[in-house]
Amino acid sequence: MPGLPLVPGVAAGEIFHKAGILMGASRVCAGTHDVPGGGGMARQHRESPLARAARGLQENVSRSGPVAGASYTLIGAIILLGGIGYTVDAWQQTAPWGLVIGLTLGIVVGFYELAKTVWRR
Question: Which residues contact residue 70 at a Cβ distance below 8 angstroms, ignoring those fewer than 6 apart?
Fold first, then answer.
C-alpha cells in the first residue's frame, strides 16, 4: 500500500530526508549546517561516493594509459626480439648468441620507448 509509512508515525520521505538522501536525485545531501546570521539551515550538496569513485578511477586510468602502453612495449620488444634471436640460433646453430643478442636488443628498444614516454610528460 503506497501510503503506509515504513515506521509507524513516520513517512518514508521523512526517513530519507533525515538520512540525508534526496529522492530522485543523483546527489547525496551532506547534512545541514547552521549558517551564522542566516537564521536558517543551509544544505551542502556533494557528489555521491560512487560517482566520486568512478570519476577518480577514470582519471587514474586516463593518466596511466601511456605508461601502461610503454610497459607493454618493453615486454613485447623483449619477447619479440628474444624470440627472433632464438629462431636464428635454431636455424644457424649458433646457440646462445642469437638469443643473447635478441634479448639485449629487446631490452634496449623497450627501455628507449619507456624513457620516451616517461620524459614526454
Answer: 113, 114, 116, 117, 118
